Amino acid sequence: MKSPQTVIVVRLCFFLLLLTALSVQAAEVNKTLKLVSGHWPPYVEKDAPGGGAAIDLVSRILKRAGYDTVASIDSWPRSLQGSAIGIYDVLATAWFTKDRDRELQFSEPYYENVTRFIKRKDSPVRFRSYADLKNLMVGVVTGRDYGEKFDQAQGFLRIAKSHVIENLLLMQQRRIDLTLGDEWVIRHELTQYFPNAVNEFEFLPQPVSKRGLHIAVSRTRPDHKEIIHAFNKALAAMRADGSMQKLLDRYRAELVHLGSTEHRPLQDTGGNKD
To answer: Locate the Solute-binding protein family 3/N-terminal domain: which residues (predicted)?
Structure first.
């Protein structure tokens, strides 16, 4: 018959083994990060290989950093709020703002979104300042963020539609003078819906805005700083060895070329501000 002391020791050892097993299991689960973003082709697409360019890039960077990922696509408000309160671990496509920074830890930018005006090739319109747009009709997408300078500019008429493809169609029909949007988004729309009309359009060279694209990790995670540090380190390594450039080139090659404003990936800036 075992002594009471032996029973206590055996039970204590069993408890410690169980606790260790649970801790290891929790750590393994913790290494699988829940990514989320709103639908944003070609950056985020449910049926696209890799989930779209941004989801694929972020997943590969995090994989190199030692994390597995599971991606979800939700509405943008739910993606943002869900990340802030910890339903999701990582918001995969985020522009930095001070308000968001209170609830989310931002990475270094892994890409740069460039917004430009696009016009018909036969149009004489140019853009060096907003004074050049006086009395013009410019197609915009309802709820889209084009940057503070564009929002504050006056002297032209904004024609709001639900989708950028509607504005491209209006411009083709000469019912508006210009529209604008992210370069890759517009090139994606032309690739999908206007492949035979690509030569009718061109970007204006002066950007409307440039903003770094980041991941943002929920501050509800106690290891949010560790994740960001690992992501930034892996991102720097992929830039150094050329694998990041190869991925960007592959996605760029899938989109129609428009004009002479081919976009290049953002170089390491050493900061989180856009």
So the answer is: 34-255
